Amino acid sequence: MAQKNTFVFHNGIEIPHIGFGTWQIPNDEVYEPVTVALKTGYRHIDTAAAYQNEENVGKAIKDFGLKREEVFITSKLRASIKGYESTLEEFEKTISKLGVDYLDLYLIHAPWPWEEKGKDCSEGNVQSWKAMEKLYNDGKIKAIGVSNFEISDLQPILDQCDIVPMANQIPFYIGRYQAQKELVDFCHEHNIVVEAYSPLATGELLNGKEITELAEKYDVTPAQICLRYCLEKNTLPLPKSTHEERIVENMQLDFTLSKEDVALLDAVKDVRQS
Protein backbone atom coordinates (compact mmCIF):
# COMPACT_ATOMS: atom_id res chain seq x y z
CA MET A 1 0.00 0.00 0.00
CA ALA A 2 2.88 2.39 0.68
CA GLN A 3 5.04 3.81 -2.08
CA LYS A 4 7.70 6.50 -1.76
CA ASN A 5 6.00 9.62 -0.40
CA THR A 6 2.49 8.21 -0.90
CA PHE A 7 0.14 5.49 0.25
CA VAL A 8 -2.21 4.01 -2.34
CA PHE A 9 -5.84 3.19 -1.57
CA HIS A 10 -7.34 0.02 -3.00
CA ASN A 11 -9.09 2.10 -5.68
CA GLY A 12 -5.73 3.42 -6.93
CA ILE A 13 -6.01 6.93 -5.44
CA GLU A 14 -2.74 8.14 -3.92
CA ILE A 15 -2.55 10.00 -0.61
CA PRO A 16 0.61 11.85 0.54
CA HIS A 17 2.47 9.81 3.14
CA ILE A 18 2.26 12.45 5.85
CA GLY A 19 -0.66 14.73 6.61
CA PHE A 20 -1.01 17.99 8.49
CA GLY A 21 -3.48 17.55 11.34
CA THR A 22 -5.66 20.43 12.54
CA TRP A 23 -7.34 18.90 15.59
CA GLN A 24 -7.54 21.34 18.52
CA ILE A 25 -6.61 24.34 16.36
CA PRO A 26 -9.55 26.79 16.55
CA ASN A 27 -11.02 28.30 13.41
CA ASP A 28 -9.63 31.74 14.23
CA GLU A 29 -6.09 30.32 14.62
CA VAL A 30 -5.91 27.63 11.92
CA TYR A 31 -5.29 29.83 8.86
CA GLU A 32 -1.62 30.54 9.56
CA PRO A 33 -0.53 26.98 10.49
CA VAL A 34 -2.19 25.56 7.36
CA THR A 35 -0.49 28.25 5.27
CA VAL A 36 2.88 27.43 6.84
CA ALA A 37 2.28 23.72 6.23
CA LEU A 38 1.51 24.32 2.56
CA LYS A 39 4.56 26.59 2.25
CA THR A 40 6.67 23.82 3.82
CA GLY A 41 5.45 21.29 1.27
CA TYR A 42 2.55 19.50 2.92
CA ARG A 43 -0.04 18.55 0.33
CA HIS A 44 -2.32 16.59 2.65
CA ILE A 45 -4.50 18.54 5.10
CA ASP A 46 -6.74 16.79 7.63
CA THR A 47 -9.76 18.43 9.26
CA ALA A 48 -13.25 17.48 10.49
CA ALA A 49 -16.65 19.03 11.02
CA ALA A 50 -16.18 18.44 14.76
CA TYR A 51 -13.01 20.56 14.78
CA GLN A 52 -15.12 23.58 13.79
CA ASN A 53 -12.29 24.94 11.66
CA GLU A 54 -13.23 23.80 8.15
CA GLU A 55 -13.98 27.35 7.03
CA ASN A 56 -10.50 28.76 7.59
CA VAL A 57 -8.76 25.52 6.63
CA GLY A 58 -10.46 25.88 3.26
CA LYS A 59 -9.70 29.60 3.05
CA ALA A 60 -5.99 29.00 3.73
CA ILE A 61 -5.83 26.36 1.01
CA LYS A 62 -7.67 28.55 -1.49
CA ASP A 63 -5.59 31.65 -0.72
CA PHE A 64 -2.34 29.74 -1.08
CA GLY A 65 -3.13 29.43 -4.76
CA LEU A 66 -2.43 25.80 -5.60
CA LYS A 67 -4.65 23.97 -8.05
CA ARG A 68 -7.39 22.06 -6.23
CA GLU A 69 -6.04 18.69 -7.39
CA GLU A 70 -2.64 19.49 -5.86
CA VAL A 71 -3.94 19.41 -2.28
CA PHE A 72 -5.39 16.28 -0.67
CA ILE A 73 -8.18 17.35 1.69
CA THR A 74 -9.72 15.06 4.32
CA SER A 75 -12.74 15.85 6.44
CA LYS A 76 -14.99 13.78 8.66
CA LEU A 77 -18.68 13.20 9.28
CA ARG A 78 -19.69 14.22 12.79
CA ALA A 79 -19.75 11.20 15.08
CA SER A 80 -23.31 12.00 16.13
CA ILE A 81 -24.60 11.74 12.55
CA LYS A 82 -25.86 8.24 11.80
CA GLY A 83 -28.12 7.71 8.80
CA TYR A 84 -28.40 8.01 5.04
CA GLU A 85 -30.08 11.38 4.44
CA SER A 86 -28.41 13.08 7.40
CA THR A 87 -24.99 12.03 6.06
CA LEU A 88 -25.74 13.49 2.62
CA GLU A 89 -26.86 16.76 4.25
CA GLU A 90 -23.81 16.93 6.52
CA PHE A 91 -21.45 16.35 3.60
CA GLU A 92 -22.91 19.34 1.76
CA LYS A 93 -22.29 21.51 4.82
CA THR A 94 -18.67 20.37 4.94
CA ILE A 95 -17.81 21.09 1.32
CA SER A 96 -19.62 24.43 1.56
CA LYS A 97 -17.53 25.46 4.58
CA LEU A 98 -14.33 24.27 2.93
CA GLY A 99 -15.27 26.03 -0.30
CA VAL A 100 -14.58 23.00 -2.50
CA ASP A 101 -16.54 20.93 -5.01
CA TYR A 102 -15.27 17.57 -3.80
CA LEU A 103 -13.30 15.91 -1.01
CA ASP A 104 -10.31 13.65 -1.46
CA LEU A 105 -11.21 11.60 1.62
CA TYR A 106 -14.30 11.58 3.82
CA LEU A 107 -14.42 9.57 7.03
CA ILE A 108 -17.05 8.53 9.56
CA HIS A 109 -15.41 10.20 12.55
CA ALA A 110 -16.30 7.51 15.09
CA PRO A 111 -18.52 4.43 15.28
CA TRP A 112 -20.58 6.05 18.06
CA PRO A 113 -21.38 9.57 19.28
CA TRP A 114 -18.56 10.76 21.54
CA GLU A 115 -20.93 11.15 24.50
CA GLU A 116 -22.10 7.54 24.01
CA LYS A 117 -18.76 5.84 23.47
CA GLY A 118 -19.14 2.10 22.98
CA LYS A 119 -22.80 2.25 21.89
CA ASP A 120 -23.71 -0.17 19.10
CA CYS A 121 -24.52 2.05 16.13
CA SER A 122 -23.90 -0.59 13.46
CA GLU A 123 -27.17 0.04 11.62
CA GLY A 124 -26.61 3.79 11.54
CA ASN A 125 -23.01 3.35 10.40
CA VAL A 126 -24.12 1.09 7.56
CA GLN A 127 -26.67 3.68 6.42
CA SER A 128 -24.09 6.48 6.65
CA TRP A 129 -21.65 4.32 4.71
CA LYS A 130 -24.19 3.69 1.96
CA ALA A 131 -24.65 7.46 1.66
CA MET A 132 -20.89 7.86 1.38
CA GLU A 133 -20.83 5.15 -1.30
CA LYS A 134 -23.34 7.23 -3.26
CA LEU A 135 -21.22 10.36 -2.87
CA TYR A 136 -18.18 8.37 -3.95
CA ASN A 137 -19.97 6.92 -6.98
CA ASP A 138 -21.23 10.40 -7.87
CA GLY A 139 -17.63 11.68 -7.92
CA LYS A 140 -18.00 14.00 -4.94
CA ILE A 141 -15.43 12.07 -2.89
CA LYS A 142 -12.28 10.41 -4.23
CA ALA A 143 -11.98 7.97 -1.31
CA ILE A 144 -14.09 7.03 1.71
CA GLY A 145 -13.15 5.62 5.07
CA VAL A 146 -13.69 5.54 8.80
CA SER A 147 -12.00 6.67 12.01
CA ASN A 148 -11.73 5.07 15.45
CA PHE A 149 -13.30 1.86 14.14
CA GLU A 150 -12.40 -1.44 15.79
CA ILE A 151 -12.71 -4.77 13.96
CA SER A 152 -16.23 -5.24 15.35
CA ASP A 153 -17.21 -1.84 13.95
CA LEU A 154 -15.71 -2.56 10.54
CA GLN A 155 -17.31 -5.97 10.11
CA PRO A 156 -20.92 -4.80 9.52
CA ILE A 157 -19.71 -2.51 6.73
CA LEU A 158 -17.69 -5.32 5.18
CA ASP A 159 -20.69 -7.64 5.43
CA GLN A 160 -23.49 -5.32 4.30
CA CYS A 161 -21.97 -2.71 1.98
CA ASP A 162 -20.38 -2.70 -1.46
CA ILE A 163 -17.16 -0.76 -0.89
CA VAL A 164 -14.47 -1.74 1.58
CA PRO A 165 -13.29 1.33 3.55
CA MET A 166 -10.15 2.78 2.05
CA ALA A 167 -8.81 4.19 5.33
CA ASN A 168 -9.17 3.81 9.07
CA GLN A 169 -7.79 6.71 11.09
CA ILE A 170 -6.84 5.54 14.58
CA PRO A 171 -4.66 6.65 17.50
CA PHE A 172 -1.27 5.07 16.83
CA TYR A 173 2.08 5.95 18.33
CA ILE A 174 5.12 4.39 19.98
CA GLY A 175 3.77 2.42 22.92
CA ARG A 176 0.41 1.77 21.28
CA TYR A 177 1.67 -0.88 18.86
CA GLN A 178 0.81 -3.97 20.90
CA ALA A 179 -2.71 -2.72 21.68
CA GLN A 180 -3.39 -1.86 18.04
CA LYS A 181 -1.55 -4.70 16.31
CA GLU A 182 -4.60 -6.91 15.71
CA LEU A 183 -6.60 -3.99 14.29
CA VAL A 184 -3.73 -2.77 12.11
CA ASP A 185 -3.13 -6.29 10.78
CA PHE A 186 -6.86 -6.67 10.03
CA CYS A 187 -6.90 -3.38 8.13
CA HIS A 188 -3.84 -4.29 6.12
CA GLU A 189 -5.32 -7.70 5.27
CA HIS A 190 -8.35 -5.87 3.81
CA ASN A 191 -6.22 -3.25 1.99
CA ILE A 192 -7.40 -0.51 4.35
CA VAL A 193 -4.79 2.22 4.81
CA VAL A 194 -4.18 2.95 8.50
CA GLU A 195 -3.77 6.63 9.34
CA ALA A 196 -2.03 7.37 12.63
CA TYR A 197 -3.48 10.29 14.52
CA SER A 198 -1.78 11.61 17.67
CA PRO A 199 1.50 10.07 16.42
CA LEU A 200 3.37 12.01 19.12
CA ALA A 201 0.81 11.09 21.82
CA THR A 202 0.13 14.86 21.99
CA GLY A 203 3.76 15.42 22.96
CA GLU A 204 3.84 12.97 25.86
CA LEU A 205 6.34 10.69 24.08
CA LEU A 206 9.06 13.18 23.36
CA ASN A 207 11.06 12.81 26.58
CA GLY A 208 11.04 9.01 26.61
CA LYS A 209 14.46 7.44 27.20
CA GLU A 210 14.43 5.09 24.19
CA ILE A 211 13.18 7.83 21.88
CA THR A 212 15.65 10.49 22.97
CA GLU A 213 18.54 8.02 22.68
CA LEU A 214 17.49 7.05 19.15
CA ALA A 215 17.07 10.71 18.20
CA GLU A 216 20.69 11.26 19.19
CA LYS A 217 21.79 8.12 17.32
CA TYR A 218 20.07 9.16 14.07
CA ASP A 219 20.78 12.89 14.53
CA VAL A 220 17.09 13.81 14.32
CA THR A 221 14.49 15.10 16.76
CA PRO A 222 12.42 12.83 19.06
CA ALA A 223 9.34 13.87 17.06
CA GLN A 224 10.98 12.71 13.84
CA ILE A 225 11.71 9.32 15.44
CA CYS A 226 8.03 9.02 16.42
CA LEU A 227 6.79 9.91 12.94
CA ARG A 228 9.31 7.70 11.16
CA TYR A 229 8.22 4.82 13.39
CA CYS A 230 4.64 5.20 12.14
CA LEU A 231 5.88 4.96 8.55
CA GLU A 232 8.01 1.90 9.40
CA LYS A 233 4.79 0.26 10.69
CA ASN A 234 3.05 1.06 7.38
CA THR A 235 0.80 3.68 8.95
CA LEU A 236 0.33 7.27 7.76
CA PRO A 237 1.14 9.88 10.44
CA LEU A 238 -0.91 13.04 10.94
CA PRO A 239 1.18 15.36 13.12
CA LYS A 240 -0.26 18.64 14.32
CA SER A 241 1.67 21.75 15.32
CA THR A 242 1.21 25.49 15.29
CA HIS A 243 4.97 26.19 15.45
CA GLU A 244 6.72 26.75 12.12
CA GLU A 245 9.97 25.06 13.16
CA ARG A 246 8.14 21.89 14.18
CA ILE A 247 5.89 21.93 11.13
CA VAL A 248 9.06 21.95 8.99
CA GLU A 249 10.83 19.26 11.05
CA ASN A 250 7.82 16.95 10.90
CA MET A 251 8.14 16.77 7.12
CA GLN A 252 11.81 15.80 7.20
CA LEU A 253 11.59 12.02 7.48
CA ASP A 254 14.07 10.94 4.82
CA PHE A 255 15.78 8.35 6.98
CA THR A 256 14.94 4.80 8.03
CA LEU A 257 15.06 2.99 11.36
CA SER A 258 16.83 -0.33 11.61
CA LYS A 259 14.73 -3.42 12.27
CA GLU A 260 16.39 -3.70 15.67
CA ASP A 261 15.43 -0.16 16.61
CA VAL A 262 11.85 -0.64 15.39
CA ALA A 263 11.65 -3.76 17.59
CA LEU A 264 13.01 -1.75 20.51
CA LEU A 265 10.26 0.83 20.02
CA ASP A 266 7.63 -1.91 19.64
CA ALA A 267 8.36 -2.88 23.25
CA VAL A 268 7.96 0.62 24.71
CA LYS A 269 5.08 0.91 27.21
CA ASP A 270 2.16 3.22 26.45
CA VAL A 271 2.82 6.53 28.21
CA ARG A 272 -0.92 7.16 28.37
CA GLN A 273 -1.59 3.93 30.27
CA SER A 274 1.10 4.34 32.93
Automatic annotation (TrEMBL):
Keywords: NADP, Oxidoreductase. InterPro entries: AKR, Aldo/ket_reductase_CS, NAD(P)_OxRdtase_dom_sf, NADP_OxRdtase_dom. It comes from the Bacteria. One of its GO terms (molecular function) is oxidoreductase activity, acting on the CH-OH group of donors, NAD or NADP as acceptor. The keyword NADP applies. The active site is at Y51 (proton donor). Pfam families: Aldo_ket_red (PF00248). Residues 18-268 form the NADP-dependent oxidoreductase domain. The record marks K76 as: Lowers pKa of active site Tyr. Substrate binds at H109. Belongs to the aldo/keto reductase family. This is Aldo/keto reductase. It comes from Desemzia incerta.
